[in-house]
Design a protein that fits this description.
Blueprint (H helix, E strand, L loop, with lengths): L1 E2 L8 E2 L8 H13 L4 H14 L2 E5 L2 E2 L10 E4 L4 E4 L8 E7 L2 E8 L11 E3 L7 E5 L10 E7 L11 E4 L1 E2 L3 E5 L10 E9 L2 E4 L3 E3 L11 E8 L3 E7 L13 E9 L6 E6 L3 E4 L7 E10 L12 E4 L15 H6 L16 H6 L5 H37 L8 H20 L3
Antiparallel strand pairs: 1-6, 2-8, 3-4, 3-7, 5-6, 7-8, 9-10, 10-14, 11-12, 11-15, 13-14, 15-16, 15-17, 18-19, 19-22, 20-21, 20-23, 23-24
Length: 429
């Protein structure tokens, strides 16, 4: 693939005029040289102008150079005026521009794309009265958005020339089409195929045959919740799919409930009809469980996808709590400092009056007993000292010298002594 700066090339746009002739450039260069007296400045200016006169190529406003990117087999011909890409890849898609003398003179947009893959068409309904939706999701990235349309026929198979209607489709990240619902054709065979066109070619899907009720695939149940029951039971509840239309409630929906311990890989599946709750009766206590649901119409259509897992831990019997010491707030509110034994049942009684009543305090009794014992010990001690000291006093009294006795005492003493002597004489032997 070669690109040259020519206004006659396909897909090219000339964005500026062609460069001036070589003679004009030389005259300009000579005029410029006359303005410089310094030879070094003149040499530097020539180098700069030489660079400006070269051809330069840019890819999405980035300079095209071999050392900046793996361009594959890239070649610059005719002094850079021609860019040759021998092999291109989808990554080489972009806008290529040629610049000369600092101006853009040529631009071309290059799109590198592969032939579109063969589409795989799928069709479904989310509710009996909802629209039919057909879509195709590409497995490979697409550089250029393709155009899609659906060809649909409801003619009987025995018709020699079935009639196909072309239905336009939309494309965002995938191709999809929406078909209006027709209650009279819910069990009529439909034949459809998808056509995809792009800049590099066209392709079609294989034929798809279906009836609207056969492709009925509802969304999963909504609002799944689990309530723990005492013992080995868990109650699971849910609601209808959010996309299930109210006018379709006369259709009967069946469910499948799947559950297992989260550490196990063995699922248990229970079928449920015409109700939105179920009680699981064989759970292990204190074990975490994983619960999921799906649904479908009872007689037609396909199973929905499973709901997102709901994790819950089964009921565990609470352990008995040992009693702890508690304080009587009523006794603490009085704040008198008296023990609890001094507070009567009647809250209006004064604790001091109650203490002065016939109720004796253990502390008072102990004080009385100790005081009595101490009194007895003191009395014995005093009596013992008196008895032991009396002979000493008499001896001291007898040995007292007369000169030491006062006259009055001396006279009294002599009088007593005389009386004793007379008594001894009269009572002699």
């Amino acid at each position: 693939m070669e690109y040259t700066p020519s206004p006659y090339m396909d897909q090219s746009t000339t964005t500026s005029s062609t460069p001036a002739s070589e003679s004009d450039s030389e005259d300009e260069e000579m005029d410029t040289e006359g303005e410089y007296d310094d030879e070094e400045c003149l040499k530097e200016n020539r180098v700069k102008r030489g660079i400006m006169l070269r051809f330069q190529w840019q890819w999405d406003k980035k300079l095209v150079r071999k050392e900046d990117r793996d361009w594959g087999e890239i070649t610059f011909l005719q002094g850079g005026a021609v860019l040759s890409l021998a092999s291109v890849r989808p990554a080489d898609t972009g806008k290529y521009t040629c610049h000369h003398n600092g101006r853009e003179i040529f631009a071309v947009k290059v799109i590198v794309a592969e032939h579109p893959e063969t589409p795989s068409l799928s069709c479904y309904k989310k509710s009996p009265s909802s629209k039919i939706r057909c879509e195709w999701r590409p497995q490979k990235p697409i550089i250029k958005r393709p155009s899609c349309y659906l060809l649909l026929s409801t003619s009987p198979f025995h018709t020699n020339t079935p009639k196909f209607n072309q239905i336009p489709c939309s494309y965002s990240s995938h191709c999809w089409c929406a078909l209006d619902n027709n209650d009279d054709k819910l069990r009529v065979f439909h034949t459809a195929f998808l056509c995809v066109t792009s800049i590099v070619g066209n392709t079609t899907s294989s034929l798809k045959n279906f009836t609207p009720l056969d492709i009925l695939k509802p969304d999963p149940p909504s609002n799944v919740s689990v309530q723990l029951e005492q013992g080995r039971e868990m109650r699971v509840t849910w609601n209808l799919p959010m996309s299930w239309k109210q006018q379709d409630n006369y259709y009967r929906i069946i469910y499948e409930l799947k559950y297992r311990p989260s550490v196990s890989s063995n699922d248990q599946v229970i079928g449920i009809k015409h109700r939105c709750s179920h009680t699981i009766t064989d759970v292990l206590p204190g074990v975490e469980y994983l619960i999921q649901l799906r649904n479908r119409e009872e007689y037609d259509g396909q199973w929905s996808e499973w709901t997102s897992p709901v994790y819950t831990r089964s009921w565990t019997e609470p352990q008995p709590v040992e009693p702890t010491e508690t304080y009587d707030s009523n006794s603490l509110e009085l704040g008198s400092g008296f023990p609890a034994a001094y507070y009567p049942d009647d809250p209006t009684t004064n604790p001091v009056d109650y203490l002065n009543s016939s109720h004796e305090s253990p502390h008072v009794l102990w004080i009385v007993v100790v005081f009595a014992i101490l009194s007895v010990i003191l009395a014995v001690y005093i009596l013992r000292n008196v008895l032991l000291k009396r002979p000493t006093d008499i001896h001291e009294f007898a040995t007292t010298k007369p000169a030491d006795v006062m006259p009055a005492e001396k006279a009294r003493f002599e009088d007593i002594a005389k009386k004793l002597m007379k008594k001894c004489q009269h009572e002699g032997p």
